[in-house]
Here is the input.
Amino acid sequence: MIKTKCEKFSGFTLLELIVTLVLVGMVIAAVIQILQGTQQQSVSLSYRLEQLDAAEHSMDMLVEDLAHASANSINVQISDSGNVVEAKMGKMGDSGDGLSIFSYSDPDRTQLLKRVDWMAVPDDEEPGEMVLYRRETIKEGKVFPMYIPMCSKVCTFNAVKDEEGLLVEVEASLYLDDSLNPNRVMRMSRTFCLERFSI
Here is the structure.
């Protein structure tokens, strides 16, 4: 005897498979977008932290230059223009903008031991930003005229002596992101006393 009864097959229809594949594809695409966004934020944060670390290192190195000059020479002279250099205005100012530290071995200032220049200069590659440079021009009788970039994304740099000439206040602000928004900057400063106190 021949059975004519249709047996039911268990399985999925083509429509169910297509819907499932589309849903799985959408979930995978969403996960990939989340991972890419997280990776981009991680890279951006890492870059910002490197910039801030470079700025902190630069400010600490500037204080070390001042400390070295005041500890190892009889006479230290600091020249500054007292002007704030602002990159957003594209104004570099004259060569006096920045900070120059002169170390002399005699009170008459005739024997120059070392000169260290710090200067913030507009960045050619990033309009509206500045780069902070350091240069040692004289060291043990040799001239090193090369400026070394210390940190970028500088918004302002200012070095000012107080009226008595005992304290040097160095201030810098850095952009926190690429928007060059003056409200999104990190300000840092260092104060250094040129003369040691004796008791």
Residues 81-96 have pLDDT under 50 and may be disordered.
